[in-house]
Amino acid sequence: MVLYRPVGTKELELIEESGFTKYPPRLPEQPIFYPVLNENYATEIAAQWNVTYNSDHKGYVTKFEIDDEYSAQFEVQVVGGSYHQELWVPAEELDTFNRHIIGKIQVISEFSEEQKA
What we know:
Blueprint lengths: L1 E6 L1 H9 L14 E2 L5 H15 L4 E9 L1 H4 L4 E3 L6 E3 L1 E2 L3 H6 L1 E12 L5
Antiparallel strand pairs: 1-3, 2-6, 3-7, 4-5
């Protein structure tokens, strides 16, 4: 399964430190890790939310593949429009989730305040 994850600069730096092989642990106030199922939705979050609310006004879209058999345990959550689809991975399961990533995490888009969608 191909998934997308909108991230800010700080999270991207931690992904880079891992050799683009894993997502960093969630913060205590973040009980779930939520990759999204389509690039359009990830782009909306990165270009609008991350650019607006991150201190450096930048957002990125990452793309990765996860083992289909493993990812099937997570029910798709629709959180807005029909294409606002996410997988909700409990924060305490993120290490296991990371071990099922196939290949490298890719950065496919970058947004800044000047490019805000």
